[in-house]
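hey so u asked for the seq, here:
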Amino acid sequence: MPPTSSNAIDRREALRRAALVLGGVLSAPMVAGVLAGCEARRAPAGAWQPRALTPDQADLVATIAEHILPETDTPGARAVGVHRFIDAMLAEAYAAEERQRFVAGLADVDRRARSTNGRTFLECPAAEQLALLDMLDRSSDPAFRALKELTLLGYYTSEIGATRELRHVAVPGRFEGCVPLTQVGRTWAV
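ran it, C-alpha cells below
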C-alpha cells in the first residue's frame, strides 16, 4: 500500500539508516544471520516455516515491515521476504534473551492495539496500524527500533533492495547474494 506523507518512513531516511547499519562493523553472528536470512528468502512461499517466530508472529512482522518499507515503484518489505530474513536472524544471530525481548515487543504491539482499538494489530485497518506504529516510532520504543533496523537490513541486503532500490551498479556482473564460500574460495578486500 502506498505510504501517506505523514506516516511513512522517507526513503532517504531509510537509506541513511541502512548505510549506518551496513556501514558499521558486522559481528560474526550478524554475518551468519544475514547468510541464513538469505537462504530463508529463497525458500518457496509454501515451503517456508518460521524457526524463531510463530506463523502469526511472522505475519505480524511482515505487516509491520511492509508499513516501514511499503511497495512503491519497487516491491515492499513483504514481497522481498523481510519477515523471513528477520525470523532467520532471530534464529541464527540472536541469543535466547534477545529473541524473547523481540517477541515480547511484538506482543506489546498487539496489547497496545487491543488497548487503543479493541482488536489485535492485524485486525486493525491500515490507518489504525499506521497510527500505532507512528506512536511507537515517536516514543523511540526499543522493540520497534530493533524491528525497523532488521527491516532495513533485510531489505537492503536483498537482491531487490540492492539492485532496484539502491541501484548498485558499481560491480559488473549479476547479483548473487548467496554464494557458498567453497564456490568463490578466498576473498580479499582492496
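Residues 57 and 106 are 7 Å apart (CA to CA). Residues 11-173 form one domain.
lmk if thats what u needed
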